[in-house]
Amino acid sequence: MKSFIKYLYSKCLQILLFPFCLFPIRKNRLAFTGLTGGKGYDYSCNPRYLSDYIREQEKDTFEIYWMVTDPKRYRDEEEKDLHFVKHFTLRSFYYLLTAKVIITNGSYAPWFPFRKKQYLINTWHGGGAYKKIENDKPDANWATRKRAEFCAKNIQLIVSSCQAASDRLFRRAFLYHGEILKCGMPRNDFLVCGNTEQADQKVRQTYQIDRKYRILLYAPTYRSNGKNQMPDFTGLRKVLEENGEKWYVLYRAHRYSEDDSAGLDPECSADVTDYPDMQELLAAADMLITDYSSCIWDYSFLYRPCFLYTPDLREYLAKTGFYVDIHEWPFPICENMEDLEKQIRSFDEEKNRARIMEHHQQMGSYESGHACEAVCSWIKQKSICEENA
Q1: Taking the model in full, what pTM does it have?
Q2: Of 5, 53, 283, 362, which sits with the fewest C-beta atoms within 10 Å of its C-beta?
Q3: How many whole angstroms separate alpha carbon 176 and alpha carbon 52?
């Protein structure tokens, strides 16, 4: 029923928003949206990295408008070429329907009726091809498929991280047959290039983490019941500190999940769910523990220790499933704390790097560290060069 309502909603919008189509499309206007979960639209994810690159490399060429939930958060960042507009207002609809190019990480595309002479770029918000999306789940219905078809017709370009994503996610699940830009994800450029020092410093300053501590990031994905089974962080720290090191735990819940950080030790851990940039947290983390999250793709390019804590693996397989068998992922699967502690103790850096490199090859990685440059070139061609042709 929920999917049907969303499908019907998109059809009604086509009629209600028609008056905005009377305004001319501005060839140098770009509109950005970054969905962060639930109803949160932030200056974030792939669109933000691309927006920042365009402003730096193409100064005064474009006027950029961001549709966000709370524009007041970004007033200090506004400049003559960068503006923040409240999401889902008449003003936001005006800019969305008069921009030559719209860049999104998935938001708006499945329901918003863009114009034929506009270009919609979907950068998506997850790398690799891991957990299945709604249209590929066992309980997907007619309305869900119709939404996917509408979304596919709305998009002129999808930015892909790897061949597996192109084939199994975008071509099959998205039902998309248009152009795919095989360049990697804009948000991963600095990770692929290994430029993590600035992000590491920023995260440590934000949470006052002394340099004597190494950082463990725990970042689980979303579950339909809203809850996840937390590892025993006290036990983990004991294992990690057996060789004399000091460790600090960062916990980042999925935006759809319930807050379950009450058990964290404030002396050596912090809830970083509200931190605006996941990539910076990955850059700062010396170790990642997750489950089925696509953040493993992003983190893999740092070649650092990563472990999959999956006590509900059988249930998750039955309800969601994966595009690539989880046993083919490059990181150890740990279905209980005993497994997790054992895998941490036996971690081998050389074997870890070899497994990751093999995984990148099997997935057909497109990551090059130049995704922002590639997408920016495409935008210039479609917005300015095409108009002058």
Answers
A1: 0.94
A2: 5
A3: 28
